[in-house]
From TrEMBL:
Domain of life: Eukaryota
Signal peptide: 1-19
Keywords: Signal
Name of the protein in its database record: Uncharacterized protein
Species in which this protein is naturally found: Zopfia rhizophila CBS 207.26
Matching SUPFAM superfamilies: Calcium-dependent phosphotriesterase
């Protein structure tokens, strides 16, 4: 979920009922948690994260060292899982990570890092998708996404799951979506922007609710909706009211506390834009912007942890210890609670 080495970005409505009861599953199993927090971990560098509402832990894509972090916000315990040939290999980044809340399994991507280093000019290299059972740390399947793309498109950086356990993977150079069948036995090109030109930056983030897949980040500057039951992905524009023009954007996220009615979009060096839909994302309303103004990192996404909604801050300006494209020497990483600011925008 990133733009380049140097520049990237990342309420409660009383009485609101949801058309998505799936989102309410396990909603109250984790203890309350809110307020800013920092993870003390050398070279963490979080690119993306997702919270597991069954085990009450935060999974983090640790970008530069291409490793997976598992953080317990209640005990502050942080575990790192590394992958032979990938972790601490500058050819790979680990960014996109998503929890299948129905199973507790997690999916994450080790992508060809040079694609983002060159902003799509060079998309060579291998992209791996992992599907893991975190309870016993078992890799259930591992898929080479480059075998499907044939090196014609890339920049794979975010994942989502449909209700049947199939995985959808977004690529950014250019906009593409791959569909990975449950179990990893079949991977197919589900959507791609034509004509295929990997020098064009496209969609960077996915969010899913029920059978609806939402995407944002292509050059049209629009929100898109897909039906994940379809054999091929066909994007439909989500009309948006309100005065907003997207800048270069990154990850998108549907916090569970709003029952699927609120979408957060990380915009590079701008902040987190807030949208609401009361008709299952057939239309949407722009509610406002939580501005970015923190020198400790640029916004690469958002994540709900317990009751709080947080921006993910990535310090892209740090000098790599082993040269450009490697982790810096930082050991403290802030997750900023923006819940109150989002609530104010939604109440307006």
């Amino acid at each position: 979920m990133r733009s380049s080495l140097a520049i990237v970005a990342a309420t409660s409505l009383a009485g609101l009922t949801s058309a998505y009861p799936y989102f309410q599953k396990n909603q109250a199993t984790c203890k309350p948690f809110s307020g800013n927090f920092s993870i003390q971990q050398y070279q963490l560098y979080p690119e993306n994260a997702d919270f597991d509402y069954t085990n009450c832990v935060l999974y983090i894509g640790q970008l530069w060292n291409a490793s997976l972090g598992i953080y317990d916000p209640y005990t502050e315990k942080h575990e790192i899982i590394e992958f032979p040939g990938i972790s601490h290999n500058s050819s790979f980044h680990l960014g996109g990570v998503g929890v299948d809340q129905a199973t507790g399994h997690i999916t994450f991507i080790a992508d060809a890092g040079n694609t983002f280093n060159t902003m799509g000019e060079d998309i060579s290299g291998t992209n791996w998708l992992f599907h893991m059972d975190p309870r016993n740390r078992t890799i259930l399947y591992k898929v080479n996404l480059t075998e499907t793309s044939q090196g014609l498109y890339g920049g794979f950086q975010d994942v989502e799951h449909d209700p049947d356990g199939n995985v959808f993977v977004v690529g950014t150079f250019p906009s593409s979506v791959l569909r990975v069948q449950k179990g990893g036995k079949d991977v197919r090109k589900w959507y791609i922007n034509e004509p295929v030109d990997h020098k064009i930056k496209g969609m960077g983030g996915l969010a899913a609710i029920g059978w609806t897949l939402i995407a944002q980040g292509d050059t049209s500057g629009k929100l898109w909706r897909f039906d994940m039951r379809a054999e091929k992905g066909t994007p439909t524009v989500i009309p948006v009211t309100g005065n907003h023009t997207f800048g270069a954007s990154d990850a998108i996220y549907l916090p569970r506390k709003y029952n699927g009615t609120v979408l957060l979009v990380a915009e590079d060096e701008i902040g987190t834009s807030v949208f609401r839909s009361m008709d299952e994302w057939k239309t949407a309303e722009f509610k406002g912007l939580v501005p970015w103004n923190d020198p400790r990192g640029l916004v690469t996404g958002a994540v709900q942890v317990g009751d709080g909604v947080y921006t993910i801050l990535e310090p892209f300006g740090d000098e790599g210890v082993k040269g450009p494209g490697t982790a810096g020497s930082r050991s403290e990483f802030l997750f900023r609670d923006i819940s109150k600011e989002v609530d104010v925008l939604l109440a307006a």
